[in-house]
Amino acid sequence: MRRRRSKPFAPKRLLHVATYGLFSSYAALAPALALAQQIADASPAATGDATDDVTEVIVKGEKQTPLDISTGSSLGFDKSLLETPRSVSFVDAEQIDLLGISSVEDLMRAVPGTYTTTRYGLQGGIMVRGIPGDMYFRGMKRLNMQGHARTDLSAMDSIEVIKGPPSQIYGMGKIGGYTNLTPKAGRAADGSYLEKPTGFLQGIGGDYNRSEASGGVGGPMSVLGRKGGYYVYGLLEDSDSYVDKVGVQQRILQGSMSVNNAVGPFRLETGGQWQNSITSGAYMNRVTQDLIDHGTYISGMPMANLDVNSDGAIGWAETHLGSPILGQVSSGNRPLYQTFSWQKDASGKALPLSQWTKRPGIPQTMHDYLIAHPEDDPTGILRGQPIGGPTPASGQLPVGFMLNPADTALTPVNYHGNGSYEREQNAKLGVLFFDLVYDSNPDHTLKAQFIKDGIDSWKNSQLPYGEKQDIHAWEEKITGTFRVPDEKLPKWLRINTLASINYRQTTGLIRSSGGDYDYRQDVMHRPYPQTPNTLFWNQLDDQSLETGAPKTTDRWSKYSEMGIGFMFDVDFFEQTNLVAGWRVDGSDAKGHDYARFNENASYVVYNEDGDAEYHPSYLPYQEAKGWDDGVSWSVSLSQQLPWNFRPYVTYAKTSTVLDSSNNILDVSTIKKGHIGQAELKEAGIKANQFGGKLSYSVAYYDQKRSDVSAADDPTLGAEVSSTETKGWEAEIRFQPIRNFYVSAYANLMQAKYLVVANTTYQITARQLGFEDVVDPDTGKVIYPAEAFVYGGKTNITIPADIMKDYLDRVGFPEHQYGINANYNFKWGLGVLIGAQWYSSTYLDRLKSIELPSSTIANTAITYDYQNWHMKVNGYNIFDERYWRAPISDTNPNLVSAMPGVRWEFTARYDF
To answer: Model-level pTM greater than 0.90?
Structure first.
């Protein structure tokens, strides 16, 4: 089979840009260096020497009080989590290791509100409060992961999940929240360095052929007499997964170093991470409520063979030759893509689905085919049916839509099956960072940061979607804090200030072909679910008109983000705190839609001589340029009360870039304005009691896009959806004694769409009005209604009058609860038990299929002996059957079957 490989990641180009950014950061800091050096000379502690002789001490089983952890990731100020007027969850290295957190799915066991839907079974990005969230790496924003590469969390030293929009130091961001990932490093958070090289080696094995090896080493170093530290980490994985033939291969190399006084009093922190993620994607397709509730699947292969030239897969031309349409080709009338009309009553009012007229019979094209191929209808029952069934807007349902009656049946499903199977997803990711940091005097800090991030991905699904993406971003940011000297203020007042300026540029290119005919593949077909009649050529394999599929998307965009922000952290009478910020951002964007094949106007027919006659059409080149800007601001007020209670309120508005999930701006979005606005209202209370043994937080939030109104939403293609989300979330952590620790959380959330508009949707053949064909003698269903269209894809526009009754955003459980408890015995044995409960949710916006509630129980047994650490993890130990919805809620035909019980063994050696 022909295949085009993606070009390798370009480290030389990345390094060149990164070096340029570092030098420009130096230049930007030059005016401040002399002043900072004077401060350093006046204070020995400011040189960094005060921490040189400090050795980091870790006592196993004794945790730092969670709300006493200091973080600058939330607001920019170095405040404890207790003092931060925002809902923040912190997961440290010990929790990552103990809970076996290596993917986005695993994070849900520890953090409320991070329930993440899937993209062909892959979970790359992290959703926060029901909305895709941003991901930061050491405080700098990364590109979206999109579900094209696995986000490996085991390589991190800590994970912070901050709810709500980013602080004014970060620039434009998403409203739901963001995660800040801190990689392993040779410098501790308190500024100390390791006294000698230390590290670890680790191996993991288990069910589904889990095979992973990782290791890291860090230690002290000296550069031109200046003290520093380094850390290098690597991971290799080659595993299978719960879904047959979907494997996971990963290679990660991560390194960092830190050098004190590298430039005057500034510490240099630099490093990066390279990752290669190779996997596949798959959904369970042909979903019905009977499949969810009882495991009954509609099996059967497509009836008409569309591999006309017998070359092993279906090309664009072959769809027209093997499944001809009636009338002129259009966006809603293609060989395997048909549009239906919404049924209305005599007065023209749209009818609810429950009142639609059923239309018995089989399509004319199916009848004609079975007359010519009676072997595909061995009982003759289908040929005896009247001509009928619902008719698409074109007037004819092409023959490629129907499943073959000879092998169509209702059968127990194989939950491991890969119905909507993507052959390969290969992504190369690289990130480099260079920071200059002056923070030895906490009252006067200055930081210049540079990051270069890139994703080079290649995806071949043969559904027939084939995609090549090349996305890059670089950003420079300078942040400074200055505390007004106490002697210049009244005793009851303290003021800390922050200023931040940044410039970010994102460039993206995508080339792809076709759409996904997700239902042609039969989970139950053996020995392999894909056959020539379910495989398609795409532009990665063959771009020719005659045998392949030309590219239908060829899009490029570049946009900048530049802004300046200010924040104030004000204490009144030591008990009352006000945090306020303001920011202005601007963005210059340009986008190109290059000339490309138009499958909505191209067709192939047989001429009088019986030869194929091609009539291709191409879409013209389009471009757009535009400037847009926005203002962000936030106000938070908190009050320290007796018993260490701290209530707070926050109100924030933030600007957000309306790019798609792959960080590319559509031409239409640029023309209409590519910056939107979002709003957050949050109120909560935090408490840290009994000497830190008990800590908890409760928050209520209301967040939404605030720049759209019915029916005005020009950015339906943007990832930042027009929704409003409200909810409660709570966390509690309790450590009454040194070797016992328990944490629990709850999240109650509801999301609704703000805009009532006509919506493009996929519904099943049964919903369209097709009926089962039954044996007249036994009453047994011999051809289910859904089988009439599983060979292709149907489309329907739901009127706004109907959609106004379906404004709930579905796909994630509105109620989530979780608990984890850990006890360490004195002789080195430890036990963890945990469980999460998820309420039921609907798979699709019309609420035609309900995914049941689920309880997932996990456990771990650990044993530590000297430098050896052993662990057995059990996930979903009671083998609960549960499901995960896809990203889109406009398709009731796809779902991810989640893994049953699985066990893993980990062995780690520290040196």
So the answer is: no
